[in-house]
Amino acid sequence: MDPSQMLEDKFSYFTPQSEREIFDELVFNVKFPEVYDASMLKDFVNCPSMFYLRHVLGLRRRSAEERNDLNWGTRWHKLMELYHNHGINEAIAQGFNDWPVGLDHLDEKNRTLERMINLFQRYVERYHDQQSKITRNLRTEQYFEIHCPEDNPHCRFGGCGLSWCGRMDRFVERRGKLVVWDYKTTGRMGRDYFESHENGFQLPGYVWAANHMTTERVDTAVLDVLYCLKASDDFFLRTFQYTDARLLEWRDNVKHWISRIDSYKSEWPRNPERWPKNWEECTRYYRCSFADVHFVAPVRDTRLRILSEDYHEDRWDPSKVD
What we know:
The protein has 13 helices and seven strands. With about 325 residues, it is of the alpha+beta class. The protein has two domains: about 5-65 and about 270-320, no CATH class; about 70-240, Alpha-Beta Complex (Lambda Exonuclease, Chain A), CATH 3.90.320.10. Strand 5 and strand 6 (about 235-240) form a beta hairpin. The radius of gyration is 22 Å and the shape is globular.
């Protein structure tokens, strides 16, 4: 046999039929989202394969532990929820009582219990009096699921033809106007940090949703950021305004990407190898949880076997995400 033909046979992809047969044999549970959120769409834009594996098959590494930066961010969100719902004293009483014992010294960025207590106290000192005078809390940790048909007579945009979900950190009244409030924790704040959030899927999606949840106009979002490095930290507030034109542009962009998902869905519903892979995304910031699979050469059914053995079903739930 021609050596080049041998190499091609060894490293060739499945035929669609053989891939589906192995896929069905390994019993993957295919479930496309019925309503989308910002994380799902961001994953698809970044890497369609990652979207399929995480949000269609619902896979997560069996040995994966939640990264400490996510634990840190989740705890900060919980503190803010307690603070705005029950006050400073209750936040301190409940916000730190289940902190993992003996792990502080392992964190390379010095994200310790003592430091978070100090940061919370400083946050309250900086913003409590200022915000309490002009801001009234309406909702905290508000999950939403908006279904707006094309012919929705109650839609201020004339009908959107879009289903969208998410979880707002806060919904407030500030100086008589309704405002969406979102918390972030980060150790990476480049020059385009605020612009990437202002123009991403999440913040304008919150404002679009808020306009479907109330009869009053909502055009403002506040980004409330805790910036934390190993030896320094700071707080930032940024306010973004969204005109109808910007919200309609966001809506049309979202519908465009969902239509792309639908096209892949109709052509390759049970063929994960056919969903494009973005290897650059595998090593961006932290390794993508599917990097080990993507970096394996496409030899026969190797990738599917790894997914079957090393991953389990643990689906993304937007209603539980901070």
